Amino acid sequence: MKLSPPTVEIFAIGNELLLGEVADTNTAWLCRFLTSMGGEVKRAVLLPDDVEAIRSELEGAFRRKRDLVFATGGLGPTEDDRTLLAVALATGRPLEEHPQALQMVAARYQSLAAAGYVASPELTPPRRKMTLLPRGAFPLANPIGAAPGVLLPLEHTTLICLPGVPEEMRAIVQNTLSSYLQSRFGKAGFAELQMLVDCGDESRLAPLLEEIQQQFPQVYIKSRARVFGPDVRLRIYLSATASTSEEAQALIREARRLLEEQLAKAGITSEIVPRDA
């Protein structure tokens, strides 16, 4: 039986993102990381620190039965950090002080106070706020910051809430969540390649790429043009997500073979290049 890649939605939360004060690097990083594991990101949205807006988007993702939903931002000690309140409303699971989260936050402030970074290790109300998790959730150790991440298994979806600070978010994903994500993604695979073609006219490439796309609907094919000019070489990007890495690689190989044939017939030379070249 062929298995579908795990589906994902991502919500980046924070007024600062919508005001343009802070660039949302978290979504791009998560998209790349989860895609490389074989996931299929279906949707990503920027949201304000508004409980009803977050609640509405979460409920939509739950109705769509996404395998994983990630929310970044809004886990801190201030009043405008409202993500978990929205989660509680969207799931019908009240916020409760979680003993393990309490231990994590207490240990963090003990360490910060000992280093002289904060005046006192006391668990003040704003600090205790970070220990309130929706019923049934699990805290995720934050190796860098104070607010634990949150993992909440639901009927069809697992919700993962992460801090908005990029370094904290990445540390939790790559360390605390590593084993869990490996178990969820299993053997799902992703493959990609990039080609440079001696053609500066994207409209000339369009019918060739359309033909490849029709024959390989599972492969994402996109040409990328930035400027016009006699010496411009266009970049073509191919990627595929499949139930196994071998299947994804086979799709890319076949699509590449046919594309190179079509380019040669059109008198266009090409070469494979590293992704970041």
Please characterize this protein's 3D structure.
By secondary structure, this protein is α/β, with parallel strands linked by helices. The chain has two domains: 7-185, Molybdenum Cofactor Biosythetic Enzyme, Chain A (3-Layer(aba) Sandwich), CATH 3.40.980.10; 189-273, Alpha-Beta Plaits (2-Layer Sandwich). Helices cover 41% and strands 24% of the residues. The chain contains ten helices and twelve strands. The protein has helices at 15-18, 25-36, 51-63, 83-91, 99-114, 125-129, 166-176, 178-185, 202-215, 245-265; strands at residues 7-13, 40-47, 68-72, 95-97, 132-134, 138-140, 149-153, 158-162, 189-197, 219-224, 234-242, 270-273. Helix 3 (51-63) crosses helix 4, helix 7 packs across helix 8 (178-185) and helix 9 (202-215) crosses helix 10 (245-265). The chain is elongated. 35% of the residues are buried.
Nearest-integer average pLDDT: 92
**What is the overall silhouette?**
elongated
Write the CATH architecture name of the largest domain. Answer: 3-Layer(aba) Sandwich
Sheet with the most strands, sense and barrel status = 6 strands, mixed
The helix-strand sequence is: EHHEHEHEHHEEEEHHEHEEHE
Brief rundown of the structure:
Helices cover 41% and strands 24% of the residues.
